[in-house]
Design goal:
Layout: H1 3-27, H2 33-40, H3 42-52, H4 58-80, H5 86-108, H6 116-120, E1 132-135, E2 138-142, H7 143-161, H8 163-171, H9 173-178, H10 183-224, H11 228-253, H12 257-279
Antiparallel strand pairs: 1-2
Length: 299
């Protein structure tokens, strides 16, 4: 397989996992929680490096995952127990945890090459040169690609098995509670999947691209979808386009591939937004969509 296949394929796997989860975050109006989680994993990574002495240790993945889960719990606690507004809960949690990670890096980590930029701006360019998966003496491809493939399969399975619960709790938490579907339980499950996806992706693409794929493709898909199933399919398509065009655009300009993919994620949304506004004169882009009339919510 060529380098382009592994890089574009990895970008798409991140876009697919983040995009599918981002659809439900968008509908629940908590899109930026992915940004909070992606910043909050830093202290977990640093502590794991301090204990293991290596940036490639499995403990780094575990530490980042635990930090992301702690961030989810803190955000939920601040919002539901202390009655802080959602944006205040997000802002307080990720700034404090990210600052803690920076302090730990500057104070205690000296021998291992790690800084906050390795988490924020992970570069997918070097993916083909990374550690490979070996089967019967044959190299199958970058280990990161197969890790992300496994994460995508897990996200897909969870969404398939709990599709009704995620759908109902996203559109109408009150109806969800009356129907015996605990909306809070599935909200935490969704955030847990977001945390896992963020941790699985940061090494290859960095948190900036993760946040971009959590927001851009779902938001573009929302503009032209008639129901939730369409929105999920369009999200996957836009994620693939952003990965492809971002890769070749970066090669053309000799720039960051991750940044270019994030850029095209925004460009695709802007094009969809403008085209729909130009060709549908009765379309009001600032009008709140009625999810019941549009077919998004079908009990």
């Amino acid at each position: 397989m060529s380098d382009a296949f592994w890089i574009i394929g990895t970008g798409f796997l991140v876009a697919a996992s983040c995009g599918l989860l981002g659809v439900f975050l968008l509908l629940k109006k908590v899109t930026m929680i992915g940004d909070a989680i992606s910043h909050s994993v830093l202290p977990g990574i640093v502590i794991a490096v301090m204990l293991s002495g290596s940036l490639s240790s499995i403990w780094v993945f575990i530490g980042a995952g635990l930090a992301g889960f702690v961030a989810v719990l803190i955000i939920d606690l601040l919002k539901n127990k202390f009655k802080l507004q959602n944006d205040a809960s997000l802002g307080l949690t990720f700034t404090v945890m990210f600052a803690l990670g920076v302090v730990l890096i500057s104070s205690y980590v000296g021998d291992v090459h790690i800084d906050q930029e390795c988490v924020l701006y992970g570069e997918i360019t070097f993916l083909p040169l990374s550690e490979s998966v070996v089967w019967n003496g044959k190299e199958l491809g970058p280990k990161t690609f197969f890790n992300l493939l496994g994460n995508f399969v897990l996200v897909g399975i969870m969404l398939i098995f709990f599709f009704k619960e995620f759908k109902v709790s996203s559109f109408d938490p009150g109806f969800s509670a009356l129907s015996g579907i605990g909306p809070h339980r599935y909200h935490l499950l969704l955030l847990g999947l977001v945390s896992l996806t963020t941790v699985a992706s940061f090494e290859a693409v960095g948190s900036i691209l993760v946040v971009s794929f959590l927001v851009g493709p779902p938001l573009a898909a929302y503009q032209i979808s008639r129901n939730l199933s369409q929105m999920l399919v369009f999200t996957l398509g836009f994620g693939l386009l952003a990965s492809i065009f971002g890769y070749f655009f970066a090669l053309k300009l000799n720039s960051s591939i991750s940044a270019s993919m994030a850029l095209f994620s925004g460009i695709i949304f802007a094009l969809i937004y403008l085209i729909k506004g130009l060709f549908l004169s009765n379309w009001n882009p600032f009008m709140k969509r009625d999810v019941v009339e549009s077919g998004f919510f079908e009990p």
